[in-house]
Amino acid sequence: MPLPLRLGNDVVDLSHRRTRPGRDRTRLMDRILTPGERLWVAPEDEAWERRLWCTWAAKECGYKVACKWPGARPIFRHRDFESRLGLQPSEDGFHGVRGQVATPWGQLRISGWVSPSVVHLGGMGGDGHDGSPRMELGVERLPEAEAPALESLRGHFTDREWEGIHRLHSARARILARERLAGYLGLDDPRRIEIVTSAHRPGRTPPRLLLDGAPLAGWDLSISHHGAYVGWALLLP
Fold first, then answer.
1. Are 67 and 113 in contact (CB under 8 A)?
2. Which of 42, 90, 229, 236 sits 20 to 30 Å CA-CA off 165?
3. CB 202 within 8 A of CB 164
4. In whole angstroms, how far apart are CA 220 and each of 8, 9, 90, 233?
């Protein structure tokens, strides 16, 4: 059966206490890297940790896509997902990231970027589609001093949306993605769009897109957050 075209994204805040340079990464590398990935991530220069977190983010994208494919029931073991990535050189510290991730169910294409402060990758996988669908990525840093209280954003969401929102960054990512999607659809009121996830497993179930209460066919969305950053990926049919 053809796999429907789906996408996932992942963001890694490189200033977070768990991802800052200088920590011992031996156990992490043993847990997540395949032999081929170890060759790419080998700590031979100051950029090796960026390559490590790009690998992590690519595998997260692969898992999020696989969770949307019919018949896939992923148990996320990082070493079951094999990435092949490359960094595009840049003089300003921002490097483009391109490659693939092979999952036990299918493959996906990876694209995005890494800077000294953040990794943001998106993955698109599936088949049985026509044309050239495009994936758009968006990321925003939320300054802690200016962060609103979660409850102050309640009015932006319907009741069923709000049931699946339990963190400020999750709410903010939805608002950003919805505004962008409304622009593509030519909507004056972004609130006609709903981004719905399970209230019972917040952050563990893929978001569903609704327009005026009905499923929005042909589009797909992935949202993520880590540290001070929120990210989203939008599939444009």
1. no
2. 236
3. yes
4. 9, 11, 30, 8
Decide: residue 181, CB within 10 A, 0-12 exposed, 13-18 middle, 19+ buried.
buried
pLDDT at 81: 95
**Taking CA 31 as the corner, what is the angle to CA 29 and CA 32, rounded to the nearest 5 degrees?**
70
CA distance linking residue 65 with residue 122, whole number of Å: 10
Domain 140-236: give its CATH superfamily: 4'-phosphopantetheinyl transferase domain (3.90.470.20)
Q: What is the pLDDT of residue 183?
A: 93
CATH top-level class of 6-129? alpha beta
- Rounded to the nearest angstrom, the gap between the alpha carbon of residue 98 and the centroid of all alpha carbons in its chain is 15
Q: In what order do the strands lie in the sheet with 229-236?
A: 134-141, 229-236, 220-226
Same fold, 6-129 and 140-236: yes
Name the DSSP class of 77. -
Domain-by-domain residue ranges, the chain? 6-129, 140-236
Q: Which DSSP letter does residue 133 get?
A: -
Compute the half-sphere exposure of residue 228: CA atoms within 13 Å on the CB side of its CA. Answer: 14
With tokens 């409850």, the residue in question is 151
Name the stretches of the chain with pLDDT < 70: 1, 128-131, 145-147, 199-204
pLDDT of residue 200: 64
What proportion of the chain, given as a percentage, has pLDDT over 90? 64
Beta sheet of 107-114, edge-to-edge order:
6-13, 118-125, 107-114, 95-102, 82-88
Structure tokens at 49: 């940790």
Q: What are the tokens at 158?
A: 């319907």
